[in-house]
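Suppose you are handed a protein chain with no further information: no name, no annotation, nothing but its sequence. What can you learn? This example shows the usual starting point.
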Amino acid sequence: MIVVEQKRAAGIAYREALPEEPTGLDPVLCVHGFPESSFTFRHLLPAVAATGRRAIAFDLPGYGDSSPDPPGTWERHVDATERFRNAVGLDRAIVVVHDWGGLIGLRWGCDHADAVSGLVISNTGFFPDGEWSRLGRALQTEGQGEALIDSVSRDGLAALLGNLAHGIDDSVVDEYWKAYESPEGRRGMLELFRSGDLEKLEPYEGRLAALGVPTLVIWGENEEYTPTANAERFGREIPHAEVVMIDDAGHFLWDDAPEACSREVVRFLSRVG
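A reasonable first move is to predict its three-dimensional structure. Written in structure tokens, the prediction is:
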């Protein structure tokens, strides 16, 4: 029986599922979004391990069970991804990203192209001409962002997530609430969004395509934050990328439709060496 274990390396908490019969194929590394944690991929990890691959999802600093590591900027999280990758001994990996994990994980992947053997991209963006959602713009605004982030209560977070996803229960809220439990964590959220100048992606234009790796774009059809047009754009800009829309799922598709998402990823992995 495959078990998802919780571990720690280089000061970073993570979840790992190991295969009962390892194949030697490249492992899978999952990078979560905001305000999530590795818990996002709790259903995917054992499904991947059942294919014979090592499966890992880590908590970005300040999220889940990883302590804040100020400043909580975009660049700091990219650096943390590389530090974690080295700490757990990953040479090459298929990288699964979601939401802010896309901006972090794809930037890391472009900076460390030799470490990436495949991509699974979900409900995110990586475009210098992209636009932030109303929530993102509010968090980036001095004064307004502080008032907003400091006003969030657990019940408020539960209500917000519940309006966005039908797969959110108390266990999910408990995990995602961890990012809000300390003043440092809340400041880190503001630092993340305020470092998110999308013009920083101009040097990365064309570099996802240049990776030349198999790519699956998987998207919640009922998305409210990152438009489905982003999925189509990834499909156009990355050669031979496959785009799959998940019915009855929104932005938090890994919570809304875990079985469907896992099934699509396993199918994708079956044709990736």
